[in-house]
């Protein structure tokens, strides 16, 4: 998986650089005057840029976590002489917090592009990040020899599909709704061997642990399905926040500050959580476990929606046009400064929700599927954006207040579900980053070769000396 992740990032940065250069062309003053041609080039470059993001985003987080030297809990002595346990899950959590902080440091760069657009033109605003993109392949080429990269293997997606197909065969889709171990055990080689006496290892080429890993990944994906609710609470449907701000007085608030307040809040609060709150809660014996963090994040999203609904109500109440304030020529008396908590509170929530979802994607996915499950976690942001666009035409005056109310209720219900329905996800799987397993060394099909290099028997009878006994000896 490692070389694939590095190749994805290199390809993504190269494609992204090309997309930014293409963005510059329709933004040139002499070209932008002709909207038919410039708009078409702009749309094509945006699609290419999204394609580049699909290369980069699912690869960078897992590759970063793969570099962690802490694969199992180990004892360590601090400079103060204290004996502590270095936990791999906590290490991954800290890696991802810093990773998310770095993302938002990059997002602050948007301030420079805003001034470039205002003082020079759109072409410079697109060229500046394009130059940064051009430097990235060079950085990756320098770093690649210093990174841990699992050796390339066959498609694990095919292996996962075979497991799912086995689970759903013989009426398995009916057992699926009941859940429990009975449903998942039917795909385990040990269960198949006990039921049938033997099986063909060319058809069942996974081990029991891989089935358990698929189960853990599916459980994590259930949590991911709720993330669009938080994403909508962090910004609303479509242009809700813009509609609200258009009816407010600036009150001396710089537009570029409000637009980037979310990233600024994340930059400020990431160190507070990483080196302040989390270690403190760990020290007093009440660590913030994954589902607790998700609950806190969604609760902050709920609070944000309540604040938005109240502010929107005040905008309506003080506008000369009443509940049609967004298109009113006279702004409300409410200051734009009231939007600061609307950007700050969900930004803190992102550190609890988004980072925890990345952590779940990495720690609960099969060793050779981390990039895919991580991509599924990111995919929910796209779902939230699509939902926002789908209903944006309906979410207008005079209904802006009620959409925030609906999101507040949905966020509250999700917050309650995490420490109750999903509480079993608080337990991090052991050896979630086993490098031997990431490299595929523990896969039965990889061990079905005899020591002399000849292909062994393709069936397994469950008797001592079978290929699966070799796996157990090497784990």
Features:
mainly alpha; Growth Hormone, Chain: A; two-stranded antiparallel ribbon
Please identify which CATH superfamily of the largest domain we are dealing with.
MFS general substrate transporter like domains
- Largest sheet features: 2 strands, antiparallel
**Structure annotation, total helices:** 21
List the helices and strands in order: HHHEEHHHHHHHEHHHHHHHHHHEH
Q: What does the average pLDDT come to?
A: 82
Strand order of the largest sheet: 1-2
Fold-level CATH name of the largest domain: Growth Hormone, Chain: A
Count of discrete structural domains: 3
Q: State the CATH architecture of the largest domain.
A: Up-down Bundle
Number of strands: 4
Beta-strand percentage? under 5%
SS-derived structural category: mainly alpha
Unreliable stretches, pLDDT < 50, 5 or more residues?
446-475
Quote the distance from N terminus to C terminus. Answer: 20 Å
Q: Could you say which overall geometry the principal axes of the C-alpha atoms support?
A: globular
Oligomer: single chain
Relative helix content: 55-70%
Rounded to an integer in angstroms, the radius of gyration calculated over CA atoms is: 26 Å
CATH class (first level) name of the largest domain: Mainly Alpha
Protein model, in words:
The protein is an all-alpha fold and 475 residues long. It has three domains: 2-69 and 100-146; 156-206 and 443-474, no CATH class; 217-426, Growth Hormone, Chain: A (Up-down Bundle), CATH 1.20.1250.20. Helices cover 65% and strands 3% of the residues. The protein is built from 21 helices and four strands. The protein has helices spanning 2-27, 29-32, 35-66, 88-107, 110-119, 122-143, 156-168, 172-176, 181-185, 189-196, 208-224, 227-233, 240-246, 255-259, 261-283, 290-318, 340-363, 370-391, 400-417, 435-438, 467-474; strands at residues 74-77, 83-86, 199-200, 459-460. The strands form two sheets. A two-stranded antiparallel sheet has the order 1-2. It has a two-stranded antiparallel sheet with strand order 3-4. A hairpin with a 5-residue loop joins strand 1 (74-77) and strand 2 (83-86). Helix 3 runs antiparallel to helix 18 (370-391), helix 12 (227-233) crosses helix 18 (370-391) and helix 16 (290-318) runs antiparallel to helix 17 (340-363). It is globular and about 80 Å long. Residues 446-475 have low confidence and may be disordered.
